[in-house]
Amino acid sequence: MKKFLKEYINAPVEAAPLAVFRILFGVMMLGSMIRFWSYGWIDKLYVQPTYFFSYYGFEWIKPLGEFTYLIFFICAVSAIFVAIGYRYTIAIIVFFLSFTYIELMDKTTYLNHYYFISVLSFVMIFLPASTYFSVDATRNPKKANQYVPAWTINCIKLLLGVVYFYAGLAKLNSDWLIKAMPLKIWLPSKFDIPLLGDLVSQEWVQYAFSWSGAMYDLAIPFLLLYRKTRPFAFVLVVVFHVLTRVLFPIGMFPYIMIISTLIFFDAALHHKIANGISKLFRITKTRFDNQRQFSFGHGLLPKFKYTLVSLFFILQLVLPFRYLLYPGELFWTEEGYRFSWRVMLMEKSGYAQFKVVNGETGRWFYVDNSDFLTPIQEKQMAFQSDFILEYAHFLKEHFEEDGHKQIQVYVDCQVSLNGRLSTTFIDPKVDLVQEKESFEPKHWITPFKDEIKGI
User: Is there a contact between 20 and 264 (Cβ–Cβ < 8 Å)?
Assistant: First the structure.
């Protein structure tokens, strides 16, 4: 234990990898904000819609109309300050809060890589990422340090390792490995991609992608940690994520993962990157090479930081397994599915027709979902139980305001999972108005009529 603490926690290591990571992270996040804005997605996803799906416990977080642009602007500016290391602690806190607010505004837009950015930026709050090669260190030379404790870099490696390894574990299921699902559905649609179009329609390629994807996720953290296999592993990272970007429209995530992987390399590479930036912007890098070591000091505050970071990683290790507390097939119910690094494992589609009953008169009618939801919201709502429940309660409140009494809401919901025939997803006899959102299992989800074996 003492050897572990000395080598991986307390040992002084070059701060250059942490500084380069800070710079590249800030630049990538700025690019993400600009991209989101330039594509008109702020207006399409957060200004035009009239209804938004909330996360349980965060119902108070909503888009702010035209002021939503201000949140994105604040997030972009804070990303710049993070990159250059100007008032870093405040900048990374503002980035974390603004980005996470954006993520929580509408559950419809949930993506694993949004969650990854939120948790990564949270960890970065506790790291001395501006102690080297930053505006803060330039303005106050007393805060400039060439060395930092090893854990400040190793915790980023650990987080990346968790993301990859848990994504690999999630692929160890019969749909992915035995049926090559959902790649059998997705890949043939990419027939128009140059060079790859003919290949991806062949079954053996679909199985090769499934198995190699699982092996890649499980092995890559360890290959990156070992010095001799690291260059080969990085080539794999680049090939895997570039190929993923070509085949699937998943935004900036592949580039973010490629850039993040550089943290595994020795300080020599990061010094070369910093030297290149120095020449480009005419920065005197040698002023930061002062042989000093950063220290968190002693007392309650450093201990609180260590405790908080430790609890955070314990949570990250445990949270993906919370699905074991729920009955039924995870891919069907999705109870415990989010925030568990289960990436691109399902092709799910659904149809949900809501029946609103006036309990006082007995009269009823069907709802046209397009009156309230955008196409993407309706698509996501139709196969996710928490969306369906939240929407049912919204319908109750809406039609009560129209004068209807004792509202009851029922749904005819049919869902298809990974190419299977559509079957009833929600018990059509259950009045959803009587059901409340909680962490308890949703008994009104019908049992899955097949079996998916695996983790």
Answer: no
Is a pLDDT exceeding 60 seen at residue 226? Answer: yes
Q: Decide: 164 and 320 in contact? Cβ < 8 Å.
A: no
312 burial class (0-12, 13-18, 19+ CB within 10 angstroms)?
A: middle
User: In DSSP terms, which residues pair with 357 in a beta bridge?
Assistant: 364, 408
The answer to whether 268 and 284 are in contact (CB under 8 A) is no
pLDDT at 7 over 70: no
The DSSP secondary-structure symbol of 48 reads S
Q: Are 326 and 441 in contact (CB under 8 A)?
A: yes
**Exposure on the CB side of residue 307, measured as CA atoms within 13 A:** 6
What pLDDT score was predicted for residue 6?
A: 62
What does the DSSP 8-state code read for residue 65?
G
Q: Mean of the per-residue pLDDT values for the chain?
A: 93
**Phi first, then psi: what are they for 128, rounded to 5°?**
-80, 60
User: How sure is the predictor about 367, in pLDDT bands with cuts at 50, 70 and 90?
Assistant: very high
160-to-24, 244, 263, 268 alpha-carbon distances in Å: 15, 18, 10, 21
CA 297 to chain centre: 33
Look at the pTM and tell me if it is higher than 0.90: yes
Residue 335, C-beta contacts closer than 8 angstroms, at least 6 positions apart = 323, 326, 328, 385, 441, 442
Answer whether residue 221 shows pLDDT above 70.
yes
The predicted pLDDT at position 415 comes to 97
Six token digits for residue 454: 């695996």
In sequence order, the β-bridge partners of residue 356 are 365, 409
How high is the pLDDT of residue 403? Answer: 83
Contact 156, 123 (CB under 8 A): yes
Residue 288 has φ and ψ, to the nearest 5°, of -90, -15
